[in-house]
Design brief:
The protein has 221 residues and is α/β, with parallel strands linked by helices. Helix content is 44%, strand content 15%. The protein has a single domain (3-220), classed as Spore Coat Polysaccharide Biosynthesis Protein SpsA, Chain A. Strands 3-2-1-4-6-5-7 form a seven-stranded mixed β-sheet, sandwiched between helices. The radius of gyration is 16 Å and the shape is globular.
């Protein structure tokens, strides 16, 4: 299979020099999309010498991933794996997602909670609410709807490249399930961010994300 690893990156200058060589060490081809970073991410990408796109403005995660999907579709890739630029998604698990696509699935999500128990933190309570909303809408139980580590097969890749209009991963997953695409979760482990600050570090942003995501799942999808 012709596989592309799409890496959205915003202010990840300290994490990319570790992540990208690690991806390449496993033999995967990558494309980093620098989402209008305000740090020296652009310079770091030049130093690494990897394939990348520098966006003039910050368009957000959904916009960045669609650009990656459009690129992959135009260049006739069989599958795309999305992995975050913060290094939380270990490249050693990419092969598990690719295997899921090779088995005939259209959408494969790397889940932290197939064999591991979901903790009772505020963030994971939010995850449970999203799982419940997806079940109400689709009748399908999922374990890790906010996981950013996911794989798209060729048919879904074309759909997302042309029609994608999602807030974040959970409503994209809801769309996949409602459309009847083949879906699978595979167990992965995720690391803590070593450098930089997560989007969800700000409580107001977390609340806004939850509200918009639940509204999209329940009333738009």
């Amino acid at each position: 299979m012709k596989v592309l690893i799409v890496v959205p990156a915003y202010n990840e200058a300290k994490n990319l020099p570790i992540l990208i060589p690690n991806i390449h060490r496993y033999g995967w081809e990558s494309l980093v999309i620098n989402d209008g970073s305000t740090d020296n991410t652009a310079e770091v990408l030049e130093e690494i010498g990897c394939a990348h796109l520098n966006l003039i403005n910050n368009v957000g995660l959904a916009g960045v991933t669609q650009i990656g999907f459009m690129y992959a579709h135009e260049h006739n890739y069989d599958a795309v794996i999305v992995t975050d630029g913060d290094g939380q998604h270990p490249p050693k698990f990419i092969s598990s997602l690719v295997k899921g696509i090779e088995e005939g699935n259209d959408y494969v999500v790397g889940s932290r909670f197939i064999t591991a128990k979901k903790p009772m933190t505020m963030r994971m309570i939010g995850s449970r609410l999203i799982c419940f909303a997806i079940w109400l809408k689709t009748g399908v139980k999922v374990s890790d709807p906010t996981s950013g580590m996911r794989a798209l097969g060729k048919n879904l890749l074309e759909d997302f490249a042309e029609n994608m209009n999602f807030i974040a991963e959970p409503d994209a997953l809801t769309y996949v399930l409602k459309k009847g695409y083949n879906f699978k979760e595979v167990q992965v482990d995720m690391l803590e961010r070593e450098e930089g600050e997560s989007y969800f570090h700000n409580p107001l942003k977390s609340i806004s994300f939850m509200y918009q995501t639940l509204m999209s799942i329940l009333f738009l999808r």
